């Protein structure tokens, strides 16, 4: 069952961050756009975990939001199970919505503090009209059980739970509409490592049990490596490299991927010498010309400053880098 | 052997609440030697920040040091009058907080904040202070420091601000720097840079560092020794390599196993069941006993003290109690 | 910056026009000016004649148009009641109101900020509780009653201070008549200023306290303490300055409402300012004066808003013009 | 959800008693006294018809000759004795205070409710939708702020007098007052709610609801509203005190409830005329009542503000 | 110089406060009490009004209807009078002033409506030709001031100020009269300072300087007197009179005012807008009688007015021509009889109606209305009280928009005709503008109109009595009382109450 569940093509999202009209007139400025993601394309197969990594502001959440319908893309196509997402049609979106869900980063903000846990978990059931009456509370109890809490916890309020438990509640809510696809936007980055391990294990177990498909978003390379089959690396809104999980770490193609890997603290104390990381992410409103990574790239070439690299197929997947297309670069 | 720069003895921090007194730190003892970087790890709420705050005398009421002693270079500082303690702060103990975005007063330029701090502690002219400030900014890696010093904090990016914060903590040349999660809010690529700067400068000036973090990787790369806190109690202290590679306390061992790494291949992460108890629900005996797979009856009865081990390691676990102390206790 | 000012100005014009329109629309319901302009012997025909002469029988929009057209040239016509040019009347009364507003504003600000800071720093102490409670009396009794009580105690019983009026005044320049330079003028100012300022003081005090408590919990205050800065520097240099950013905004608006609230104080103390003028005009349906007064209030607010924004601009380097964040 | 709410909850009272806010209340003597006083006045006002010895709003029951009876002294003409004396119309001051408090509280509560409903609705919409609706509403709020509240109330009162047919003016006066005071207060609520809504709407629980396609109205009412009510409650409490005082102030300017059915403010305005003539009780008792009411409500508001601020606990 | 120092030596300043300021200093612009009161100190009239209501000499030393022509009034002008600017006053100035006063937009025009022509026969004689016999015309002159023609022409104020012109007239803030005081400083509604005019024809007053201030709040006004900041307070709230009398250092003087307070009602319309009755209850004589039996005037006097009023049943003060004692008399309230009458009229369960009442015009106006509400409630007339400011109240009467209202009426001419013209005559032309009862009786109208040209004063008085009989019979007015004036002052000051509430500082003496 390796068919494609979700495919994304040319996904672009710009935010209008212009100053007010009058300022623009006086200061003789044009409109300003922040390109959060640009021309992103990838596919996720049924039952697999696809991960997106990237630093803060690289556009991970923007992609996630577009996929679950919270944001409308400026350009590009999102196809879910072969069906194109149509933001204009409420009815079509509604039937699609049942099939995907999202888990958020902040377990403290993702549960309404004024609602009881059972109401939180039951909300999708109510909204989609899946069950009624006593069935609902049975189902809620079952879901709580499933994520490792007890049915009795349903009458409590979120503040009575720890962060890890809350994330379990969030997962239970996401599962309550029986989705096939779950977008997880940094599901563990607010959690402690010991709890993170529980949640990651739980996610895996659920995937095995229900054949779920995950889009996992994280900035933590080791989490991504542990969870994902394939990984996409984002830099300034562009997908600079997509590769098989294991191979990305052993054989990174894009210099940025390499740099990211080098920046990860070495817990194993292997004493490997790393390439020192330089610079910071540029302002996405005025991204550098050509390859946006060029100001920080240790292997920068002239062409990098001028031209945006095209997608190239590599040994491990795809990447966007002039090094890979220019023969004499290495 | 030189006396340690900082010596914490049986530190107990309590919060009197209406439901009884919460003991947030329970007989925590450790030393930091001259020039040493002591890592302090633990899950959220373990008491890492409180330890730092207690040392620098900035516990927020109603929190208070209930007992124990804090010695700075042989001088007891936990019972100093306020004004004396204030002179120590910044001058002899510097502090770096987690969030660089909120640690700087948005209404003052970087220069104003630096000069104010320098002149609070050192009898230098405004001009001299400014010169020092520029030099310091330069040292922490802010490009064009002489020009940028007159900018306001919001003109700097997150990574740059954290450098400013480090400069502020170091500007009166303290002997000890307490860094409370200095990189948690930053991206991996920047995190590495900041840690490097902090380490280098402290080494340069011979300052000792107490590095608080929950990121084992950072500790592994940076610290000489590491102290593991659990529920307000020290679980284990020892040289970094020993603790990471051969943890003795079951909690530390579990913790290490639950961290996904770039090299490990296991399908599932080791998982410590449950979560750290809240302060009002710390079980009798060893605080870790409900989650410990090796717990035996004594663990449920008595609270273990730090037990000295080989190589200067200490572990608070009944598993490692020598017959001798058993005898003396019995 | 230029854009900001331009936008403010444009907004101000709209505000002024709206106020004018609303005010003008409302006047038609306040009463019939003719009734109070003529004696009881005047015949109905004569009344109708006067109404026509004054243009009161024209369609509302025509009247409004005429009003705006003349108002932009600074001509608000002649007071129906006092038969003087409205502009002159208002300008001669304005200094009294502004002096009263300024002094009570300054009192309110000084004590409000002082008490606010004190109660924030000493939260829970009995002195702060007392200050908090006592100051609440300022907002728990209607202004007019406070004024009358002050008169009773300090003017009638103790005979320390005058009960009404502005005392002796002297001219500064051509038209600004001040009571601040004479002894009786200053004495006369005390009771009205307290009456007017009490309410604002309480508001400012509460605001400063709340804001200060908020600021005192911020990371940069903790960091400032961790750097060993003195309490003074932390509390006043860092915390207070940050507190003032939003406080300035609110206080600016308070100043405007002080001017509006002076209606009551001026009536109670027979203070010869624009507020009392307005209230008398309302009774007499002196439409030109009412209209001009409302325009003046709108102008004052607009100007204060502008100044506050500029001040905000000056104090807060983040140049957050969007004050919505600063107000609560 | 309804079925869940209906479940019997044995520990509800106990749990409420145990909550942080209840605890902070128990620990604050000022708040307890303030709550006691407010409650006393509010109950006395509600049950005025049963408590009050006389009905001052029934003109037929008044005897003009009872006027100006001092407290606890027999009237020189009629020989009647009144606990707190009588006013210039022969109304028993005690009863009139009770009935007056009823009017004041009614005006206060309704004005606050009106301002709240208006402010919260507009604030929620502005905060949630953003864009031009937000800009428009906030500009309107600016203009509204530009217009001093007393002036606004004065003018609204004037207009209403013009619009409402004479026969209904009397009956409508109180509603006009409510609208006038309410209209001058809604901006505060709108601003606070708008700000809080903008914060809440970006929180992930709202996004979670949006992901499942919940209707915006439902999100606003069921999700966001309960979470922005904290500060609103604080403003409302203080706003109640302000509205009661505003009503009193307006009565001084001659716009207010009819003097045949006086509110506390109207009573004070009437009593103020007798400050120098020796009938101190007509001013004193209503003023004390108003002071006690406004002060205690204000104190409660202050306490609530601190108690609801999690950072101050 | 010697006299000057003499004056300085005995210089007495009086600080005088009252509720409202003069609206203007133009002598003819406004026919309004406070304006006239202040202007009487600066300007003078041909004839004056004494404290007892009788006419006194002013700038005219003699006056009377011409023996040759009953349509002409002859005035003998006082000699040796100079204006404040030093120019002498002549008959020309009188002619000019009367012409100015009778030409719109003068506020005094209505009082001179019957004047056809004013001429100066010689330097000291002025003839005023009326359109017909006008035996009472001289009564209309007590507030018509004489100003300088030359000064008026010089300053472009030949006519009274015109509101519509949109410019301030010179005469609004500048004066040149012949009066006993010269205006030296004026800040409208704040402070006006008058200095004795040493060129005045009469004896120098004891008060050489008058500082006139406005204090509109009653409590503040009283406080200012108590704290010694003012010497004379003119509008003393009735409730404070008794207390002030007992205060050391304060004296209160009282006197009847030429102002009568009464209720009236729409007695002609088919139905009442504000009533739940199907017809117009006020049209029923029984109802009107019942109301007059229900009102307890003594209680109003005792409690509402604190004893400071003259209860009366007739809508005119005693010193007005036409008043009789029996008109004024009233019996005790009789609720039983009133209830019977109500039942007879067909309202055994009463009816409801709205009472319109000013709340800032007369002494305790709102309280009086409130008291009436209570009294009528006892005969089941359920009254809604609508009390509002004067500028909203009076148009209701003028526009016939009220069913039931309170009105106060002064009679500046001291003659009943004034009452009939405005309150009784059918509303038409210049008649009946305050006839809110909509009462219309052509017979009576004819009689009223005939009054103005009757020169036989006896016959005229008989006619007046006849009219009054009819009016009282019809109960057009439900009268309450005549107002009593009270002035409070420092106890070494003597000042009598003026019936038109126009005290003169020239009459002030010191103990
Ligand atoms: N509503 C918005 N308006 C304007 N800019 C936006 C908006 N939402 C996101 N952005 C910008 O788009 C870029 C990508 O944001 P996004 O939230 O997708 O990043 P991210 O990779 O999820 O980062 P993080 O790790 O911090 O969550 C950022 O520069 C961000 O500032
Ligand atoms: N004011 C307080 N009242 C009660 N308990 C408190 C208070 N402040 C802190 N604590 C408790 O003290 C314990 C230690 O807190 P501390 O901030 O030191 O944790 P930490 O290890 O720094 O965690 P983190 O990684 O989240 O920063 C926590 O359980 C916390 O709940
Ligand atoms: Mg994100
Ligand atoms: Mg911490
Ligand atoms: Ni605030």
Automatic annotation (TrEMBL), chain A:
Lineage: superkingdom: Bacteria
Can you supply one Gene Ontology CC term for this chain's record? Answer: plasma membrane
Q: Which family does it belong to?
A: Belongs to the ABC transporter superfamily.
Xref: InterPro entries: AAA+_ATPase, ABC_transp_ATP-bind, ABC_transporter-like_ATP-bd, ABC_transporter-like_CS, Oligopep_ABC_C, P-loop_NTPase
The scientific name of the source species is: Roseinatronobacter monicus
- One Pfam family linked to the record: oligo_HPY
Q: Does the keyword Ubl conjugation apply?
A: no
| Topology in membrane | Peripheral membrane protein
**Keyword terms of this UniProt record:** ATP-binding, Nucleotide-binding, Transport
Q: Name one GO biological process term.
A: transmembrane transport
Compartments it resides in: Cell inner membrane
Q: Which PANTHER family match?
A: D,D-DIPEPTIDE TRANSPORT ATP-BINDING PROTEIN DDPF-RELATED (PTHR43776:SF7), TRANSPORT ATP-BINDING PROTEIN (PTHR43776)
- Protein name, entry field: Peptide/nickel transport system ATP-binding protein
From TrEMBL, chain B:
Signal peptide (residue range): none
Q: What SMART domains is this protein classified in? A: AAA (SM00382)
Q: Where in the cell is it found?
A: Cell inner membrane
Q: How does it sit in the membrane?
A: Peripheral membrane protein
**What's an example GO cellular component term for this entry?**
plasma membrane
The similarity comment for this entry is: Belongs to the ABC transporter superfamily.
Q: What is this protein called?
A: Peptide/nickel transport system ATP-binding protein
The species is Roseinatronobacter monicus
- Lineage start: Bacteria, Pseudomonadati, Pseudomonadota, Alphaproteobacteria, Rhodobacterales
Automatic annotation (TrEMBL), chain C:
A Pfam cross-reference name: BPD_transp_1_N
Gene source species: Roseinatronobacter monicus
> Can you list the GO cellular component terms from the UniProt entry?
plasma membrane
PANTHER family noted in UniProt: ABC TRANSPORTER PERMEASE PROTEIN, DIPEPTIDE TRANSPORT SYSTEM PERMEASE PROTEIN DPPB-RELATED
Q: Main localisation, per the record?
A: membrane
What GO biological process terms are annotated to this protein in UniProt?
Answer: transmembrane transport
Occurrences of domain ABC transmembrane type-1 (ranges): 94-312
Q: Does the keyword Calcium apply?
A: no
Arranged from A to Z, the UniProt key words for this protein are: Cell membrane, Membrane, Transmembrane, Transmembrane helix, Transport
Q: What is this protein called?
A: Peptide/nickel transport system permease protein/oligopeptide transport system permease protein
What is the similarity comment for this entry?
Belongs to the binding-protein-dependent transport system permease family.
Q: Does the keyword Transmembrane apply?
A: yes
Record-annotated membrane-spanning stretches:
12-30, 100-121, 133-155, 189-208, 244-264, 290-315
Where in the cell is the protein located? Cell membrane
Q: How does it sit in the membrane?
A: Multi-pass membrane protein
Q: Which domain of life is it from?
A: Bacteria
TrEMBL record, chain D:
Classification via SUPFAM superfamilies: MetI-like (SSF161098)
Q: What is its main location?
A: membrane
Keyword hit for Transmembrane helix: yes
GO annotations of cellular component type? plasma membrane
- Which terms does the UniProt entry file under GO BP? transmembrane transport
Tell whether Transport is among the UniProt keywords.
yes
> Cellular location of this protein?
Cell membrane
Residues in the signal sequence: none
Please list every transmembrane segment annotated in the UniProt record, as residue ranges.
Answer: 30-52, 103-128, 140-160, 172-193, 228-253, 280-304
Name the membrane topology term.
Answer: Multi-pass membrane protein
Recorded hits in CDD domains, A to Z, give: TM_PBP2
Q: Which ranges carry the ABC transmembrane type-1 domain?
A: 101-301
Q: Which domain of life is it from?
A: Bacteria
| Entry keywords, A to Z | Cell membrane, Membrane, Transmembrane, Transmembrane helix, Transport
- InterPro entries, per the entry: BP-dependent_transpt_permease, MetI-like, MetI-like_sf, OppC_N
Say which family it is in.
Belongs to the binding-protein-dependent transport system permease family.
Q: Which PANTHER family match?
A: ABC TRANSPORTER PERMEASE PROTEIN, OLIGOPEPTIDE TRANSPORT SYSTEM PERMEASE PROTEIN APPC
Q: What is this protein called?
A: Peptide/nickel transport system permease protein
């Amino acid at each position: 069952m390796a068919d494609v569940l979700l495919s994304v093509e040319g996904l672009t999202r710009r935010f209008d961050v212009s100053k007010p009209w009058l300022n623009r007139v006086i200061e003789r400025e044009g409109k300003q756009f922040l390109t959060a993601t640009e021309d992103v394309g990838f596919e996720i197969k049924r039952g697999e975990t696809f991960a997106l990594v990237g630093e803060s502001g690289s556009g991970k959440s923007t992609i996630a939001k577009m996929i679950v319908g919270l944001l409308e893309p400026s350009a590009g196509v999102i196809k879910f199970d072969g069906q194109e997402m149509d933001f204009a049609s409420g009815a079509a979106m509604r039937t699609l919505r049942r099939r995907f869900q999202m888990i958020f980063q902040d377990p403290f903000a993702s549960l309404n503090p004024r609602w009881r846990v059972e109401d939180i978990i039951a909300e999708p059931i109510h909204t989609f009209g899946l069950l009624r009456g006593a069935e609902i509370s049975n189902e809620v109890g079952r879901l709580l059980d499933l994520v490792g809490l007890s049915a009795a916890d349903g009458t409590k309020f979120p503040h009575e739970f720890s962060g890890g438990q809350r994330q379990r509640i969030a997962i239970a809510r996401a599962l309550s509409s029986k989705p096939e696809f779950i977008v997880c936007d940094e599901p563990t980055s607010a959690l402690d490592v010991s709890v993170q391990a529980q949640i990651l294990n739980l996610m895996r177990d659920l995937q095995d049990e229900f054949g779920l498909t995950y889009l996992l978003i994280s900035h933590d390379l080791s989490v991504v490596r542990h969870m994902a089959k394939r990984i996409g690396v984002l830099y300034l809104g562009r997908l600079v490299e997509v590769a098989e999980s294991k191979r990305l770490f052993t054989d990174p193609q894009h210099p940025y991927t390499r740099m990211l890997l080098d920046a990860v603290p070495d817990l194993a104390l292997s004493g490997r010498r790393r390439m020192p990381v330089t610079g910071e992410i540029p302002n996405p409103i005025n991204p550098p010309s050509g390859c946006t990574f060029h100001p920080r790239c240790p292997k920068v070439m002239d062409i990098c400053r001028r031209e945006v690299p095209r997608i190239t197929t590599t040994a491990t997947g795809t990447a966007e880098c002039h090094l890979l297309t220019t023969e004499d670069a290495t | 052997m030189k006396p340690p720069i900082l010596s914490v003895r049986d530190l107990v921090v309590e919060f009197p609440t209406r439901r009884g007194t919460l003991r947030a730190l329970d007989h925590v003892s450790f030393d930091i030697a001259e020039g040493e970087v002591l890592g302090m790890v633990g899950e959220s709420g373990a008491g890492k920040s409180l330890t730092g705050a207690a040392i620098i005398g900035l516990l927020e009421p109603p929190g208070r040091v209930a007992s124990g002693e804090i010695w700075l270079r042989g001088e007891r500082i936990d019972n100093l009058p306020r004004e004396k303690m204030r002179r120590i702060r910044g001058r002899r103990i510097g502090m770096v907080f987690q969030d660089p975005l909120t640690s700087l007063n948005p209404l003052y330029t970087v220069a104003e904040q630096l000069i104010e701090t320098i002149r609070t502690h050192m009898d230098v002219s405004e001009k001299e202070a400014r010169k020092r400030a520029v030099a310091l900014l330069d040292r922490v890696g802010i490009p064009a420091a002489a020009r940028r010093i007159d900018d306001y904090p919001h003109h700097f990016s997150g990574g740059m601000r954290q450098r400013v914060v480090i400069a502020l903590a170091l500007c009166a040349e303290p002997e000890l720097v307490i860094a409370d999660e200095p990189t948690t809010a930053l991206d991996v690529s920047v995190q590495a840079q900041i840690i490097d700067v902090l380490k280098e400068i402290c080494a340069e000036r011979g300052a000792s560092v107490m590095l608080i973090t929950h990121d084992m990787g950072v500790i592994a790369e940076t610290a000489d020794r590491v102290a593991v806190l659990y529920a307000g109690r020290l679980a284990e202290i020892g040289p970094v390599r020993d603790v990471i590679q051969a943890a003795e306390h079951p909690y530390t061992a579990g913790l290490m196993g639950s961290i996904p790494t770039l090299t490990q291949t296991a399908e599932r992460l080791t998982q410590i069941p449950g979560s750290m108890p809240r302060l009002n629900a710390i079980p009798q005996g060893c605080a870790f006993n409900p989650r410990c797979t090796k717990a035996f009856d004594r663990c449920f009865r008595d609270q273990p003290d730090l037990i000295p081990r080989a190589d200067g390691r200490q572990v608070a676990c009944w598993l490692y109690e020598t017959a001798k102390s058993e005898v003396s206790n019995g | 910056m230029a854009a900001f000012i331009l936008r403010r100005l444009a907004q101000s014009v709209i505000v002024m026009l709206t106020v004018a329109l609303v005010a003008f629309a409302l006047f038609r319901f306040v009463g019939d000016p003719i009734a109070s302009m003529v004696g009881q012997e005047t015949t109905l025909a004569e009344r109708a004649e006067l109404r026509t002469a004054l243009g009161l029988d024209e369609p509302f929009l025509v009247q409004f148009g005429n009003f705006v057209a003349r108002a932009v040239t600074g001509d608000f016509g002649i007071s129906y009641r006092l038969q003087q040019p409205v502009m002159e009347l208002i300008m001669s009364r304005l200094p009294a109101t502004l002096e009263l507003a300024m002094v009570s504003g300054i009192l309110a600000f000084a004590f409000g900020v002082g008490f606010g800071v004190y109660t924030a720093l000493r939260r829970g102490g009995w002195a702060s509780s007392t200050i908090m409670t006592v100051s609440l009396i300022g907002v728990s009794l209607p202004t007019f009653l406070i004024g009358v009580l002050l008169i009773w105690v300090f003017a009638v019983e103790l005979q320390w201070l005058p009960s009404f009026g502005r005392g002796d005044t002297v001219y500064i320049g051509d038209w600004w008549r001040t009571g601040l330079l004479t002894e009786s003028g200053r004495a006369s100012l005390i009771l009205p200023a307290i009456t007017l300022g009490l309410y604002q003081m309480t508001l400012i005090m509460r605001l400063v306290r709340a804001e200060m408590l908020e600021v005192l919990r911020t990371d940069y205050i903790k960091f400032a303490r961790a750097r060993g800065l003195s309490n003074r520097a932390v509390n006043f240099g860092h915390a207070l300055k940050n507190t003032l950013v939003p406080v300035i905004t609110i206080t600016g608006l308070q100043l405007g409402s002080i001017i509006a609230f002076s209606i009551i104080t001026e009536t109670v103390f027979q203070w010869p300012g624009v507020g009392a003028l307005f209230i008398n005009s309302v009774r007499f349906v002196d439409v030109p004066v009412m209209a001009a007064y409302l325009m003046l209030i709108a102008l004052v607010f607009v100007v204060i808003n502008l100044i506050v924004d500029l001040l905000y601009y000056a104090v807060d380097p983040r140049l957050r013009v969007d004050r919505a964040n600063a107000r609560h | 959800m309804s079925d869940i709410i209906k479940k019997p909850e044995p520990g509800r009272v106990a749990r409420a008693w145990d909550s942080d806010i209840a605890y902070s209340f128990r620990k604050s003597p000022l708040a307890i006294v303030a709550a006691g006083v407010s409650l006393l006045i509010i109950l006395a006002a509600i049950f005025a018809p049963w408590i009050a010895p006389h009905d001052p709003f029934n003109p037929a029951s008044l005897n003009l000759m009872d006027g100006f009876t001092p407290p606890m002294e027999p009237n020189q003409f009629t020989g009647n004795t009144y606990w707190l004396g009588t006013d210039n119309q022969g109304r028993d001051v005690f009863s009139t205070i009770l009935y007056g408090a009823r009017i004041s509280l009614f005006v206060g509560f309704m004005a606050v409710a009106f301002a709240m409903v208006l402010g919260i609705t507009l604030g929620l919409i502005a905060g949630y939708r953003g864009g031009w609706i937000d800009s428009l509403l906030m500009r309107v709020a600016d203009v509204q702020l530009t217009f001093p509240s007393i002036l606004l109330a004065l003018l609204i009162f004037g207009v209403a007098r013009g619009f409402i047919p004479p026969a209904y003016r009397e009956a409508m006066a109180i509603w006009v007052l409510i609208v006038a005071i309410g209209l001058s207060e809604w901006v505060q609520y709108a601003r606070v709610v708008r700000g809080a809504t903008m914060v809440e709407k970006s929180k992930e629980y709202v996004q979670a609801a949006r992901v499942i396609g919940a209707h915006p109205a439902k999100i606003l009412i069921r999700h966001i509203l309960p979470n922005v009510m904290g500060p609103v409650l604080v403003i409302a409490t203080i706003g109640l005190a302000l509205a009661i005082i505003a009503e009193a102030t307006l009565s001084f300017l001659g716009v207010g409830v009819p003097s045949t059915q006086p509110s506390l403010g109207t009573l004070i305005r009437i009593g103020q005329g007798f400050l120098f003539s020796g009938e101190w009780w007509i001013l004193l008792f209503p003023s004390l009542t108003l002071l006690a009411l406004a002060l205690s409500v204000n104190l409660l508001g202050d306490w609530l503000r601190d108690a609801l601020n999690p950072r101050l606990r | 110089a010697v006299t000057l120092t003499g004056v300085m030596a005995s210089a007495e300043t009086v600080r005088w406060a009252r509720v409202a300021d003069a609206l203007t200093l133009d002598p003819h612009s406004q026919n309004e009490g406070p304006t006239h009161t202040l202007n009487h100190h600066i300007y003078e009239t041909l004839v004056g009004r004494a404290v007892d209501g009788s006419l006194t000499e002013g700038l005219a030393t003699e006056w009377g209807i011409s023996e040759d022509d009953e349509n002409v009034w002859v005035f003998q002008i006082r000699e040796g009078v100079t204006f404040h600017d030093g120019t002498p006053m002549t008959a020309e100035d009188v002619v000019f002033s009367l012409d100015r006063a009778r030409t719109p937009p003068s506020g005094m025009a209505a009082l001179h409506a019957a004047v056809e022509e004013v001429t100066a026969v010689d330097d000291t004689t002025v003839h005023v030709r009326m359109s017909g016999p006008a035996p009472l015309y001289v009564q209309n002159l007590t507030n018509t001031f004489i100003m300088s023609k030359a000064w008026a022409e010089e300053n472009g104020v030949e006519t009274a100020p015109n509101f519509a012109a949109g410019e301030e007239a010179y005469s609004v803030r500048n004066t040149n009269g012949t009066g006993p005081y010269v205006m030296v400083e004026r800040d409208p509604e704040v402070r006006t300072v008058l200095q004795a005019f040493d060129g005045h024809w009469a004896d120098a007053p004891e008060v050489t300087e008058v500082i006139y201030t406005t204090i509109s709040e009653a409590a503040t006004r009283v406080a200012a007197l108590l704290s010694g900041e003012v010497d004379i307070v003119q509008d003393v709230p009735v409730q404070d009179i008794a207390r002030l009398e007992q205060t050391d250092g304060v004296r209160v003087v009282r006197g009847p005012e030429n102002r009568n307070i009464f209720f009236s009602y729409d007695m002609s319309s088919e139905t009442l807008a504000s009533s739940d009755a199907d017809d117009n209850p006020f049209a029923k004589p029984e109802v009107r009688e019942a109301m007059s039996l229900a009102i307890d005037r003594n209680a109003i006097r005792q409690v509402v007015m604190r004893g400071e009023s003259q209860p009366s049943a007739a809508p005119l003060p005693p010193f007005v021509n036409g008043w009789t004692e029996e008109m004024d008399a009233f019996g005790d309230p009789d609720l039983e009889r009133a209830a019977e009458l109500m039942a007879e009229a067909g309202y055994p369960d009463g009816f409801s109606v709205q009472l319109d009442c000013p709340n800032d015009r007369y002494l305790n106006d709102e309280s009086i209305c409130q008291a009436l509400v209570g009294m009528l409630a006892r005969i089941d007339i359920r009254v809604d009280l609508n009390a509002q400011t004067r500028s909203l109240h009076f148009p209701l009467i003028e526009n016939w928009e009220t069913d039931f209202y309170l009105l106060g009426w002064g009679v500046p001419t001291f003659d009943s005709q004034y009452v009939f013209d405005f309150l009784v005559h059918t509303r038409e032309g210049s008649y009946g503008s305050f006839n809110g009862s909509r009462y219309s009786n052509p017979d009576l109208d004819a009689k009223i109109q005939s009054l103005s040209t009757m020169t036989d004063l006896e016959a005229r008085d008989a006619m007046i009595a006849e009219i009054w009989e009819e009016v009282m019979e019809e109960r057009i007015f439900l009268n309450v009382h005549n107002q009593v004036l009270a002035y409070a002052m420092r106890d070494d000051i003597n000042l009598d109450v003026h019936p038109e509430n126009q005290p003169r500082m020239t009459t002030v003496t010191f103990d």
